[in-house]
Predict the structure.
Amino acid sequence: MILLVVLAIIAVLALIAASFAYRMEGERLGIEALGDLQQARLAGESAMERVKHLLRDDRTNMDLWYDNPEAFRRVPVWMPDSEGGLGGDESPTRKEVVPGQPAWRYSVVAYEVVAEDKVVIRYGLTDEAGKLNINFASRGELLRLVKSADLKELPAEALVDALIDWRDRDDDFNSPAGAESPWYMSRLGYRAKNRPFDSVEELLMVRYWDGRFLFGEDANRNGYLDENEDDGDEGAFPDDNGDNKLDRGLARLLTTYSWDWDFANDNKPRSNINQLSWNDREKLPKQLQDELSEETIGFLAEAKKRGFKFRSVGELWGLQVFEDGSSNYDEAWEAYKQQVTEENEIPKPAGEDQGGEDQGGQDQGDQDQNNQGDDRVDGQDRQNDQDQDNTGGDRTNPSNGSDRRNTGETDDDSNRDDDEEQPSAREKNDQRRRQSVRDENNTGSVRDGRGNRGDNGRRDSQAGRGRQGTGDGRQSGTTGSSGRSSQAGRTDQGSQPGEDDEARKGEPVISPVTPEQMNVVLDRLTVRSPQQIQVPGRINVNTAPFEVLRSIIGITDEEAKRIVEARKSLAGPDKMTTAWLVTSGALAPEKYAVIANKITARSIQFTADVIGFADHVGTFRRLQAVIEMRGHMAQIRYYRDISSLGIGFPVKDDERTEGLSYQPQ
C-alpha cells in the first residue's frame, strides 16, 4: 500500500515537472520569437535610417533612390562573421544566403507593372509627387483619375463631389451627388470634416468611398494577383470577383503629402522671371549671371520691353514675342483655359435645382465657390487659406493642406507681378480690343471681344488679343497723320481680312534658348511671387504612372503614354528638370508651355516600404513610412507597421513566380 502511494506521488511529481518543463520551453520559445520580431523591426528601422542618409545628399538624382538594388536589396544588418557582429556591407557577396548561417537583413521594396500579369520588383522608394494630391486637385483632375478605376455602377462624379464636399470649408453641397454634415449626421453620426485630408485612408470616412475603391483586390499591396486575391469566394477576404484580373485600387495613385519649395536644386530661392531687370546684367542674381547666356538675357530683356509677361517658365522654349506683346502661345493658352473651365464645370441637371433631397439646395453662386473650373491662369489667388483655420499647423506649410476651391487654375503668378515698369500685355490688349471694336463699327465690320469678325466669321489669329501698331508706337485703329484710322486705311487698300491683324503684331523676337539653357531657366526661375515659396501638389513626370499623368488637364492618353516610354531610356541626371519632355519629343513645346506649372521633376516626400527579415528564420516585419526632406533634415510624416498584410514580396529569393520577380539590370 505504501509502495502504491509512493509511486502515485512520484507520478504526480513527474507530471508536474514535465508540465513545468513544457511551460518553460514554451515561454523560452515565445521570448525568442519576440526577440526575433524585435530584431526584424530593428532591421527595418536600419533601412529607414539608410533611406534618410541617401536622401540628404541625393534626392534630386532619382537613379539613386528609385531603383537601387545595391543600396536597398538584401542589405545585411547583422552577420556573425562580420566585424563586431555588425553588417551594413552592401557588396554582392554579402547579399547571398549562406546555408546554416544566421543573418538579419532589410530590403526597401516597391513594384512596377510592366504587363497586366507581370510585375517587376524594384528596390527603392515611391515618390509622393508621382501621385495626385487630393487636397489640391481640381474636380476635373479628380474625375480623370477616378474614371480610370473599375467603378461598376457608381458614377465617378459621385465619388469626386463627395470628396470635394469633405475637404471644402462649408456645408454647401458641391453637387446633388455630394455629402455634407446633415447627410453624415443623419446616417453615420459625425460631421463632414470641412478641412483638408490628413491621409488617403481618411477617404474611408467619405460617402461612397470604401476599401474596395481605395485598395481594390490587392490585399498585400504588392501589385500582383495572388491566389487568394482571385478566388471569387463570397464573403472571403479580400473582396474579389475571380476574373483573373487584379484591381489595384486608387490609394496607390493618391496622396496628401506632396509639396515642394520653390527653390533651385541647390536650395537657393528662385527668381521671378517677370520681375527681374533683364536689361541690366549686373543687377541679376549671380547664378543667372554665371549660367545664362548673353543671347538668353537679351531675349528676356526685349520680351519684357514689349510688355510680355510669362504665364509659365516653360513658355521660354520656342517662344516668339511680337511687338504688341502677344506671343505664338496665346492661342494654346486660350484653348487650355477653355478646357480647364469645361472639365471642372459642375453640370446642372436639366429642370432641376442644384440641391437634392438631402442637400437642402444650393445656389448657383455656391457652385461657383466650390467649382474648380475657374478659368483664370493665375493660380496664386488661392494662396494658403489653410493659415486661417487655426488648426495649429505651420502657417506657411502647404503640406497641412487647403480646400483650394479654385484649383482649376494653374500655379502661375504672371498676373500678380509687382513689376510696374510697363503696362502688362493683357492691359494693353484690353485697350486695343475696345478701340478695335469701335473702329470696326465705323467700317461696317463688327469684331466681338474674342476677335471674331461679324462680316466673315474669321477670328483674330491670336484668339482675342488686340494688336498694337508697328514702328510708330500708335495703337491700331487710332487716327494717323492722314486723318483716317490706320486700320481703315489698310482696308481701303484692298487687304484681306486678317492681314491687318498680322501686320499690327509686328516682327517677332524669337527665343534662342537651347536645351542646356532651358535646364538653367527651369531650375533658377519661376512665375510665382517671392512670398509664395511653397508649391503644393505638382506632379513628378519622372515617376508618375500613366493614370496620374493623364489626370493633368491638357494631357491626352497618347501623350501620357509617350512620357512613360520616353523616360525609360533617360538616366537620372537627364531628368533633373522637366525639359526632357520636349527634347525627347514626348510633348510639343506649346503643350509643355501650358502645363509647365502643373509638373515637376523632383519631390521632397518619399514612401519607404521596408521589410526586415532573417535568413535563418521566417520572422519578418514590414514597415511603411512617408519621409519628408526639409533640406538635410528628415521628418517622418507617416509611420505604420503593415506586417499584418503579409510580407508581400519574395525578398529572400527575389522570385516567387514568373509574374512577380526581380530582374537585375
